[in-house]
Amino acid sequence: MIDAARREFAHHGYTATTIEAISAASDVPAATIYRLFSSKLGILKGILDTAIAGDDEAVAVLDRPPARQALGDADPRQRISGFVGVTAAINARIGSVYRVLAAAADAEPGARELLDAIDGQRARGQGELVRSLARDAALRPGLRSREAGDIVHALQSPEVYRMLVVDRGWPPARYERWLTDTLAAQLLP
Q1: Given this structure, which CATH class describes domain 2-187?
Q2: Which three-class secondary structure string do you get for 65-127?
Q3: Rg of the chain over CA atoms, in angstroms?
Q4: Are 8 and 22 in contact (CB under 8 A)?
Q5: Backbone angles phi and psi of 39, in degrees to 5
Q6: 58 with 49: CB under 8 angstroms?
Q7: pLDDT tens, 153-178?
Q8: What value does the mean pLDDT take over residues 1-20?
Q9: Rounded CA separation 34/30 (Å)
Q10: Domain range list for the chain
């Protein structure tokens, strides 16, 4: 049902997608969908939660081995590179669904709240990278943690990923190299 909902949202957008269409595409009764997700926005949230994590396990991204390993790397550049890998994988998974949510946020207050919550969650996660660099005195002189967080938040955004990888056709490995180089140049001494 989740895959059918993802396809419906990607193809028709948030407003035009109905629970009935998701029901028809998935062969799951509409009543069951309502019982599981309560609303169309609930379905979109479920899709995004699974896409962000990469599975349906109740483990936060920062508590998963790739993020823990990246944040634990003693070399600041390698720490950035590992964190870029985690973020790039998330951005690849959320892709079209994030765009659906961003478009819906202009018209529906609940979608705006969800987008803001996801954006806040992303900023907090990225803040862990900045805090780890600051703790190790690895931020370039004069760069405040808040500014560093803003830089990471902007450059690791789903929008920048989409612009370069999806719209401009960059291979994901090129994007990751560019982002690692750019963040290292902006953040490190």
Answers
A1: mainly alpha
A2: HHHHHHHHCCCHHHHHHHHHHHHHHHHHHHHHHHHHHHHHHCCCHHHHHHHHHHHHHHHHHHH
A3: 18
A4: yes
A5: -165, 170
A6: no
A7: 999 999 999 999 999 999 999 999 99
A8: 93
A9: 6
A10: 2-187
